[in-house]
Amino acid sequence: MMTPAVVVSRAAYLACGGMDPELPCREDTHLFLLLGLAGPTCAVPGCTVTVTDDARGARLTEQLPGSDATYWIATARLYEDVLRRNPSLDASSARELRRRIATAHWRLGRLAWRRRRPTEAAGSAWRSARHDPSVILGRLARRA
C-alpha cells in the first residue's frame, strides 16, 4: 500500500496509535499492520494515486537499502511493537512476527560482522535466536 493513497478515519488512526514518530523509516508498514490488526480494512477500486519519478531518490525506501542498519533497526522495532501491542494474536501471526524480528536482528548481526564489530554481531545473533532460533539455524545451515 502507498501512504498517499490511503484513507483512514481519524478514530481508527488514533485508536491504533497512529504513525510512530520514532521510526526513521517503515512507519507506513507499522501503521498498516496496526490498522489491519485493529479491524477490517478494504481496498476500493478506482481510487488511485500516481507516483511520478519527480521524487526519485527522495523516498526513504530508496535512501535506506537493505544494507543499511537503520532499515533493519526500524524493521525490528516495528514488528516488536506490533507484537507487544497485540498480545492476543493468533499463534501463526505471532510466530511470523517473531520470525521477521529474528531476521532483522540476523541482518544487523551480519552488517556488524562485516564492519568488524564482533561484540555487536554476537548481540544481534543472540537477539535473533531469542525471537526465533530457526532463523539463525537455517541461515547457518545454508552456509554449511
Strand content: under 5%
Radius of gyration: 17 Å
Q: Taking all residues together, what is the mean pLDDT? A: 88
Low-confidence stretches: none
Helix tally? 7
The helix/strand order is HHHHHHH
- The helix content, as a percent range, equals 55-70%
The end-to-end span amounts to 38 Å
Q: How would a crystallographer describe the biggest sheet?
A: none
Number of strands: 0
Basic shape:
globular
Instruction: Classify the secondary structure makeup into a structural class.
Output: mainly alpha
What brief labels describe this structure?
mainly alpha, 144 residues, single chain, 0% strand, 7 helices
Question: If you had to describe this structure to a student in words, what would you say it looks like?
Answer:
This protein is mostly helical and 144 residues long. Helices cover 62% and strands 0% of the residues. The protein is built from seven helices and no strands. The radius of gyration is 17 Å and the shape is globular. The model has no long low-confidence stretch (mean pLDDT 88).
State the gist of this model:
By secondary structure, the chain is mainly alpha-helical.
Give the secondary structure arrangement, pairings included.
Blueprint: H1 10-16, H2 27-38, H3 60-63, H4 69-85, H5 91-114, H6 118-131, H7 133-143
